[in-house]
Each structure stands twice: as structure tokens, then as C-alpha cells.
Amino acid sequence: MKLKQRPQDFLVEEISSFVPDPSGRFFVYELEKRSLSTFEALAILARRASLRPAELSAAGLKDKHGATTQLFSAPRALATDTGDERLKLRFVGKCAAPLTAASIVGNRFRLVLRALDQARADALAPNAAEIARFGVPNYYDDQRFGGNAHGQGFAARALVLGNFEEALRLHLAAPHRKQSLRDKQNRRLARDLWGRWAELHARMHRGPERALVEFLRDNPGRYAEAFERITPSLRTMMVAAYQSLLFNLMLARMLEAVGVPLVAARNRGGEIPMHRALDDATLEQWRELELPLPGGSTRPDDFPAAAPHLAAVLEQQGITLDQLRLPGLSRTRFKAARRRALMFPQDLAVGPPVPDELNPGLLRADVSFALGRGSFATIVAKRLVV
């Protein structure tokens, strides 16, 4: 299966609880973007408005590889002519405070599943029926694993283990193919000249990475402080990536312990087993079951069904809950939270398979559904074809 072969193959529309407040001092815009992450889109808009990106507050983060619609707030009025064909702005009202994730109810999706062979096309209808009845494991998917230095390791795991130098190395010296040429060059230099800070600083292109190297040139060995100088949004992504992996591993163990037949899918975090069906008692228990998104303040006793599986995952990773408090850092945190074990797509509709004009000899199918905040449509798509 191929997803997102074209931007219009992956359409996302935010479902918001936002209600305009004419007396509010913040300006709210509907942003339509294509082939840009939310961070990238807001950076472009902030630069045009002579604002800092942090002054533009999006309710949520939307996929880069698709066409998405979402809301964000700004401290003053913006020009709706963006000058960029990938971005479209529409003023929708005012609000009293910057928008946050609390204003998101969920998202509506319209996907095109491409490059399906006949067996996968035939599986769509029965799989959709199973999903509607038994739900889908609420795993995090690839979009969440951008902080995994592209297969070279999780910087946040190094933080948990107290290896601040390794965490910084994974950020500064791990080039990958999707970076710009300048970023690749900077990271290759950092890889080759690690520890030779004066020489590295002299040869790097200007940018945030060079500023970190400048700090290390003047303060050698102070890796924890250097790490906390990384842009806050990037540090948050690194922590979220490893936290998401811990959640996925825990949920996978719990499903395997249920003892029902499982089908296998994969993402950047590894194998993610999925159930076809659950017995009535398990379905009743799991329908509203919440699991910990682990952090230093997580209390395992609050999650009796998950506690032994969380303990096993932490042991396998060689870490403890107390280490998730990240002693030695003051501005980087694992924020404990709760997350549903299952997601139940609403209004799930699967169109008939038809010839795929982009992949001759194969089939495509149109799919639509809605999900609650924080759930991944790509997980539903993977379950539909296995």
C-alpha cells in the first residue's frame, strides 16, 4: 500500500470547539497547507509578519505529507495573502487567549489507499467491519518518531540514561536524506569533527546548530546546558518520540497477553501487532481503558492493567520511571499523561477498489473517517489492509 503519493491523497480537516470572541485580543486564522509541517508553515508566516514562530499558536500539529486544514492564533492581524502557493489563510475570529490543543475535538480524514493488490483490496470491507466493532490499537505512528535521529537512536533515551553528550550528538551529528544540503553539511562536519569545537565552529554554516557549537567551544563539556539551548519545539519532539515508543511497546505487550489472534504491521518504532477481534469481556474492559503515557510522575498503581507491562518495557529499555524526571536538566521534561488503548473511527466509509491511475495493474480505494484528538489515521490505514 502507498499513502500520500500525492498531497490530495491525504486530506485532514481539524474539528475544533473554537467559538469566536469579538472582544478577544488574539486573531484566529484557518490555515490550509500542503506539503509543509505545521512548524514549517508557521515559521514562514511568522517571518513574513516579523514575528517569532512561538508567537503563532497552533491548536495541533498536522502531517507534512498531505493537505491539511487547522486553526492557529496570532497576537495581531496578519495579511491573508501569504505569497506562498502551499499556504492559504482565512481570518475566522478572535479569542481571549492563544489556542491550545484543548480546542481540538478531533480530525476528519479523507485518504486514498494506493498500490493495492487484489488480496489487500478484497480485505478492505471485512477489515472495516472488524474495525467498526472492535476498534484499532491507539498506537503512535511514524509522524511521532521524527525525534529518533532517523534510525540512529532516540536522543531522549540518552537523556534518560544521563548521557547528555550522546543526546546532543544525535541532534547535531546525524545527517539524513530529507535535510537541506546545508543541514547535511553541518551535521557531517559535526560527525567528523566532534569535540574539536573551534575548528567545527569555523567551518559550519550559520544556523542554530552553529550557535550550539559556539557554546561548546566556549564551554567545553557542558553538554546538558548545550542540549537545553536547542529550540524548545525540537526538544519536545525528541522527548515525545521516545515516550511514544514506550507507549507502543507497552500496548503491544498488553495485546499479546490478551491471547487473541494478531496481525502484524510495522512503523519506525518497530512491530505493532493488531487484533482482529476481542471477546465481549475484553472489549467491554478495553473500550474505555486508559493507559499511561509514561513520565516521571506516572503512578503505576493508577493503571493496574498496564502496570506489569510498563514495568517490563522499562526493564527491557534499562531505565526507571524516576529517570524520566531527567535529573540534570531543568527545561526538558517527560510530561505524564493518559491515552486510550483503543480508537474507534467514526463514520468509517470505504469506497470500492478501482484501477489505480498512478500504479498500473494495481488498485486504489477512497476511505473517510473521523478520529479523536491525538489518534493517527495512518494506523487505521495500516489496519485496513492487513
Name the features:
34% helix; 386 residues; nine-stranded mixed sheet; Alpha-Beta Plaits; Hypothetical Protein Yqey, Chain: A, domain1; alpha+beta; 12 helices; two-stranded antiparallel ribbon
Percentage of residues in DSSP E strands? 15-25%
CATH uppermost class of the domain at 153-234: Mainly Alpha
**CATH fold title of the domain at 153-234:** Hypothetical Protein Yqey, Chain: A, domain1
The best one-word shape is globular
The residue fraction in helices comes out at: 25-40%
The succession of helices and strands, N to C, reads: EEHEEEEHEHHHHHHHEEHEHEEEEEH
- Number of distinct helices: 12
Low-confidence regions: none
Mean pLDDT: 94
Please provide a written account of the structure:
This protein has helices spanning 38-48, 118-134, 155-160, 164-172, 181-192, 197-203, 208-218, 223-227, 232-258, 280-287, 307-317, 377-384, and strands at residues 10-16, 26-34, 57-58, 67-74, 87-95, 104-116, 136-137, 262-267, 270-275, 290-293, 337-340, 342-343, 346-350, 354-355, 363-372. It is α+β, with helices and mostly antiparallel strands and 386 residues long. Among the domains are: 19-98, Alpha-Beta Plaits (2-Layer Sandwich); 153-234, Hypothetical Protein Yqey, Chain: A, domain1 (Orthogonal Bundle). The strands form 4 sheets. Strands 1, 2, 3, 4, 5, 6, 13, 14 and 15 form a 9-stranded mixed β-sheet that branches. The longest helix has 27 residues, at 232-258. The mean pLDDT is 94.
